[in-house]
Amino acid sequence: MARIKLSAAAAAALLCCTVPGLAVPVISQPTTTLVPAAVTAPPVEPHTDVTSHGPYTGPPPTTTGALSTDVLAPSIPALPPGPDAYKYPSDGKLHSPEPAPYTPSGGLGTNGSAPVYKPLSDFDYESLALALYQEWIELDLFHWGLARFSVDDFEAAGLDAEDRFLIEYMADQEVGHATMVSNILGTEAPKQCNYNYPVTTVREYIDFCQKLTRFGEAGVYGYLNHLDARDVGQLLLQSITVEARQQMAFRQFEGLFPMPEWFEVGIPQSWAWTLLAPYISSCPPDQTRLVWQNFPALHILNQPNPLRVNGADVWDETLGDNLNTASAHDVAPDQDCVNATGVGINCSPAVTHNRSAPLSYPGRQVFLQWDTPGQAVGPNNSYVTSTAAGQPTFAAWVSQLNVTYSPLMNVSGSTAYTVQPDISVYEGDPAANGTIFLALTDLDLYVTPFNLSMLNPHVYAVSIYQAG
Ligand SMILES: *[C@@H]1O[C@H](CO)[C@@H](O)[C@H](O)[C@H]1NC(C)=O
Ligand SMILES: *[C@@H]1O[C@H](CO)[C@@H](O)[C@H](O)[C@H]1NC(C)=O
Ligand SMILES: *[C@@H]1O[C@H](CO)[C@@H](O)[C@H](O)[C@H]1NC(C)=O
Ligand SMILES: *[C@@H]1O[C@H](CO)[C@@H](O)[C@H](O)[C@H]1NC(C)=O
Ligand SMILES: *[C@@H]1O[C@H](CO)[C@@H](O)[C@H](O)[C@H]1NC(C)=O
Ligand SMILES: *[C@@H]1O[C@H](CO)[C@@H](O)[C@H](O)[C@H]1NC(C)=O
Ligand SMILES: *[C@@H]1O[C@H](CO)[C@@H](O)[C@H](O)[C@H]1NC(C)=O
Ligand SMILES: *[C@@H]1O[C@H](CO)[C@@H](O)[C@H](O)[C@H]1NC(C)=O
């Protein structure tokens, strides 16, 4: 073991000035002889690598429709700001005594009450149960892709063994998230289900993962600050920040710009459930059901295709599913960006890429088609799509901090087009970029990030738009 050798004089000099009890400075060397006692880690929630995938083919469901109780009104009336909304002066000075040193007064959950990490309301329980359905599908999806596609398939998409290990690791992260949320919910927590994915190639799979993690992430941001149980919100925050990193990593695997936005978007729970449920084929008996609404599907007929050099120049290149996942089938080799050479053209997996031809742009005509309500979706086909909205008249672009409406044009039956608006959150930050949400509404209701769910009674259909 090496130690600094001090000359006698130096040692004496040191000792002379050393306060008793303070260590003599030495350069510490790591030792391998200490064996800390192993602390038993809590067990994870039981889960399997689900072997059966595909559409539901079993008997009609034993229960149908969302969980429900007495419904008091068709919508929540809009009110002016609360009585204290403007009370705090916000002038950089302190306005109340401090409860302890270095501790400003105020805050929620700061009075010393022990956190207990339990839901406090139906709102909390239903939001967490939705989060758990999401964690379970991600756990399955990440494993499924690794099992479904060969090493050669992944290599052809530019994803090597280290990339595949990252996907495997993401699945492990989901085990932890599912365990945490299950523990919070208790014995009736929703269990892992069986799933059905539309993708048939690795690059479609990556696009699907990128879109699925986007609504998983945004779904939680939409309610996190509305939870009654702030202690639960803290744990959820610390899992959803991992989900956000997964979403970005999948964008990078797809060769997209990792985060072409200054703010991440939040959406209401029913939007997330609308986008999630169609990929669940069946759930175990007595599975805890959800209260959330399933809106009809919105098909974006010229959904931008990130697999193309010019991804905006497309028609009908999705898998036809609720997420409008990119299809690889009609992309000719000379239009495919994965092996194309040159900055702005190539979209092989990377930390970041520029695109010479953006996936979308303000002024782009976006052609839409929507399903009618009343269709069976989700686990065992046991949920039914519904809307309280009249004939759709607007497209709502929901991204970053903004909800912006563009009128539907040439509405004919269940088709129309709209024009991608030119909006910025702040100067220099075009709002519609990245993987965003597009909804059809019957009203251009003014909503902001904390009251977006007030739009639900006016929502007809919801999907994801690949703006960039
Ligand atoms: C859904 O299907 C599974 C498998 O067939 C079955 O065990 C379960 O009870 C069904 N649930 C409902 C609500 O029908
Ligand atoms: C402290 O705050 C909690 C909510 O976080 C509340 O339930 C509790 O009653 C408060 N306790 C006191 C002593 O004010
Ligand atoms: C891209 O290149 C890889 C490796 O040469 C190849 O396996 C793959 O098929 C190519 N993909 C396309 C779309 O050209
Ligand atoms: C990438 O795009 C930005 C913004 O358009 C541009 O300023 C930059 O020069 C581009 N970089 C390369 C290497 O093309
Ligand atoms: C999205 O952001 C990327 C990267 O900054 C940029 O190249 C592209 O033009 C943007 N697209 C839109 C629609 O603003
Ligand atoms: C919309 O309808 C008008 C009038 O019928 C027609 O001239 C125009 O081509 C239509 N636009 C699109 C994009 O279909
Ligand atoms: C977008 O959001 C920002 C920040 O809240 C707001 O100032 C701006 O007015 C919004 N833009 C539109 C077009 O709604
Ligand atoms: C949503 O909040 C904004 C203020 O941020 C308010 O002006 C608007 O009226 C609210 N919308 C509804 C439908 O309550």
From TrEMBL:
Keyword Signal attached: yes
Lineage top rank: taxon: Eukaryota
Keywords: Signal
UniProt KW Signal keyword: yes
Region spans: Disordered: 45-67, 87-107
Pfam families cross-referenced by the UniProt entry: Ferritin_2
First and last residue of the signal peptide: 1-23
Record PANTHER family: PROTEIN RDS1
UniProt protein name: Ferritin-like domain-containing protein
